[in-house]
Specification:
The complex is a heterodimer of chains A (about 425) and B (about 200).
Chain A (H helix, E strand, L loop, with lengths): L5 H14 L2 H7 L13 H5 L7 H16 L1 H4 L9 H11 L8 H5 L6 H14 L5 H13 L7 H19 L15 E4 L3 H4 L2 H14 L3 E2 L11 H4 L2 H18 L3 E4 L3 H15 L6 E4 H11 L12 E4 L14 H9 L2 E3 L24 H7 L1 H10 L3 E3 L3 H13 L5 E3 L1 H8 L10
Parallel strand pairs in A: 1-2, 1-3, 3-4, 5-6, 5-7, 7-8
Helix pairs in contact in A: 1-8, 4-6, 4-8, 6-8, 10-12, 12-21, 14-15, 16-17, 17-21
Chain B lengths: L1 H22 L14 H9 L9 H4 L2 H22 L3 H23 L1 H6 L2 H19 L4 H17 L7 H18 L12
Helix pairs in contact in B: 1-8, 2-9, 4-5, 4-7, 5-7, 7-8
Classes of the chains: A alpha/beta (about 425), B mainly alpha (about 200).
């Protein structure tokens, strides 16, 4: 923790002020402390203490705003000075007790978009050098190595080559390819580094779907990591630099569409935030692989046999993909075709609970206990469905769900959408006809 | 009545200045292509998103929601009764005062809500509840008639200084929330997926 002297605190305040636009000022002036947001927060549901109420977290920030940014505050009549104690309270509130899931926003009686304010506070903490070290290390890895797990180019390429051999063996098609750096391919597919590192079969599943659909696609040897933890440390310059890796890969390979693998924050970063960080509209489309799989099935480019998944399946909604990303239906349409029995969680869609792994929580060891406790809400939801398999179109969520699986003895399988689709594929015949 | 008018002018000017300061902030241009329409999101934010069954927070707390609605109706009725005194408005004002007391009681009784509360929360409630109560009683109890302008004055003076200024910023907040989620194609929700 850096020394929080006056110049440091001033830097934080300046960074905070710089983030405040018209919407933020309205939000900071609108909370009535009705407290009805409390139960919308998974942290509060699992630990009903004052510090976990979204309005309380907001108030810690709004009080400094009132002191430093309003007439009454400057006269010493309102708010609370941003001192080291309050800065630490911000840190605890916006990193330690919030996954930026935004469920409180939808349940706010006034309509305050709380994660926006929490992000402004994170930006202030970043300016004060208070980003949790392990989260910052993840960002630094992306900046230095081009991916957040510091996987070397050689390892990445070798892994893909190995997976290509596996794909050929699985499909019986010696022509099945996982293209790397194919110039002019229609699609550049990007993945979470967890896939080559820990879940190679997940990447193989996506490749199998592309192969079955006859897609014109490629991976990139550089600029292949879809993750962007700059979304969580709220240093926009760093987030923009990480986004630039993808933009550069698109330009280098001349692809038309950037396809984001199954990842909530990766999708939000590339689709929604990236153009804002870089201050320009991309000359290409950004889409999720979920949309593509939905189209393949709709257009008959792939066919699936739901009997391959006879057990009940439920779906987790990653916050950045669904609540904040607007992608709610494609994955549902895919699963309804792919499995025998699809069971929705209650609630589901935009109202679904966060798994607890969002907001960079998985990269911050110091909050692990709280993260798992808060994930109890998701565990209850899963148990209530009685499902055998939980599908999560996000590798961060999958990591959290895997931990919840152990912690709460859920005895479920946790898989991606592509994995289920790949397993259910009715493979094309060797002649190319399905 | 002059005090009421003067305090009303102060309230309007101060709130207007606060609103102007917020609106003066330049809007950043957005570069990500929209997936939906901001306008549709704003419409939803002020309609579908506000119906009681749209939010889990309301479904779980129907009593608080009802008290809040009656409280706000009472405030509007009380202000209307300053210009057009009538029995229905007096009745609504009294109902609003009762709801205000109910919300105050809830704030005091529930530990998490008490912990969340500050002086402004209590003062705001007392000023509004007092004003609505006096507006409701004005036609029945002569002392209430005399006190009403002073209660209105105190309330109007305080509005721009505390959380009652949400009477303005509520609308701006919902507008921005609706525009944000509308542009991203999240509002209105598809397939009936409410919060």
């Amino acid at each position: 923790m850096p020394e929080l002297d006056a110049p440091t605190l001033q830097r934080g305040l300046d960074a905070f002020r710089a983030r405040l636009g018209q919407a933020d000022l309205a939000y900071l002036d609108a909370c009535v402390h009705c407290g009805l947001c409390a139960d919308s927060c998974h942290y509060y549901r699992m630990d009903p203490s004052l510090e976990n109420i979204p309005a309380r977290k907001l108030d810690l920030i709004a009080s400094a705003f009132r002191r430093h940014c309003t007439v009454l505050g400057r006269l010493g009549l309102a708010g609370r000075e941003l001192d080291p104690e309050l800065a630490k309270a911000w840190l605890d509130a916006v990193y330690g007790r919030c996954s930026l899931c935004g469920r409180c926003s939808l349940n706010c009686t006034v309509g305050i978009h709380l994660p926006r304010i929490f992000r402004a506070a994170r930006a202030a903490l970043a300016a004060m050098g208070m980003v949790p070290a392990d989260l910052q290390a993840t960002v630094d890895n992306s900046l230095r190595h081009g991916n957040n797990m510091a996987i070397t180019r050689e390892d990445w390429v070798e892994t893909v080559q190995w997976l290509e051999e596996e794909l050929q063996a699985e499909t019986g098609d010696p022509g099945a390819r996982i293209p790397m750096d194919r110039h002019g391919a229609k699609i550049l597919f990007t993945v979470n580094p967890r896939e080559p590192k820990f879940f190679p079969l997940s990447l193989q599943a996506s490749a199998k779907v592309f192969w079955a659909a006859g897609e014109d696609w490629t991976l990139a040897s550089e600029g292949w990591d879809l993750t962007n933890y700059g979304l969580f440390n709220c240093k926009d310059a760093e987030a923009g630099a990480i986004t630039q890796h993808l933009v550069d890969a698109m330009a280098r390979l001349g692809c038309q569409t950037l396809v984001i693998g199954e990842c909530g924050h990766g999708y939000a970063s590339a689709r929604w935030e990236g153009p804002e960080w870089l201050g320009r509209t991309f000359p290409f489309q950004v889409r999720s692989i979920l949309e593509l799989m939905d189209e393949y099935l709709e257009q008959g480019r792939i066919q699936v046999d739901p009997a391959r998944h006879p057990h009940p399946v439920t779906l987790h909604d990653p916050c950045n993909l669904v609540r904040h990303g607007g992608l709610c239906e494609p994955q549902r349409r895919v699963l309804r075709r792919t499995v025998t029995e699809f069971r929705e969680m209650a609630p589901h869609g935009a109202g679904n609970f966060c798994c607890g792994g969002g907001g960079g929580q998985l990269a911050m060891g110091r909050y692990k206990e709280r993260r798992l406790q808060a994930g109890g809400m998701k565990a209850r939801q899963i148990q209530a469905t009685g499902a055998h398999t939980v599908v999560a179109p996000c590798h961060n969520c999958i990591d959290q769900l895997a931990e919840l699986n152990k912690e709460f003895k859920l005895k479920v399988q946790v898989r991606t959408v592509a994995e289920l689709v790949a397993d259910a594929l009715i493979l094309p015949s060797p002649t190319g006809a399905p | 009545m002059r005090a009421v008018l003067l305090s009303g002018a102060w309230c309007a000017l101060a709130l207007g200045a606060q609103l102007a300061a917020v609106l003066a902030r330049p809007k950043k241009p957005l570069f990500a292509p929209a997936a939906g329409r901001a306008g549709a999101g704003v419409r939803y934010a002020f309609t579908g998103a506000m119906v009681p069954w749209a939010k889990e927070s309301v479904r779980m707390n129907p009593g608080s929601y009802a008290l809040g609605m009656v409280f706000h109706l009472g405030v509007f009725a009380a202000f209307a009764s300053l210009a057009w005194p009538s029995r229905p408005l007096a009745g609504l004002s009294l109902a609003g005062a009762a709801a205000g007391l109910g919300l105050l009681g809830k704030r005091l009784a529930m530990p998490h809500l008490r912990g969340l509360s500050n002086t402004d929360d209590f003062l705001s409630n007392l000023l509004v509840t007092g004003f609505t109560a006096l507006a409701g009683l004005a036609s029945l109890v002569p002392p209430a008639q005399r006190l009403l302008p002073w209660a209105a004055t105190a309330l109007l003076v305080y509005i721009p200084l505390g959380k009652i200024r949400h009477c303005v910023f509520f609308f701006l907040s919902r507008y921005h929330l609706g525009a944000f989620f509308g542009r991203r194609g999240c509002f209105p929700p598809s397939g009936g997926h409410h919060a």
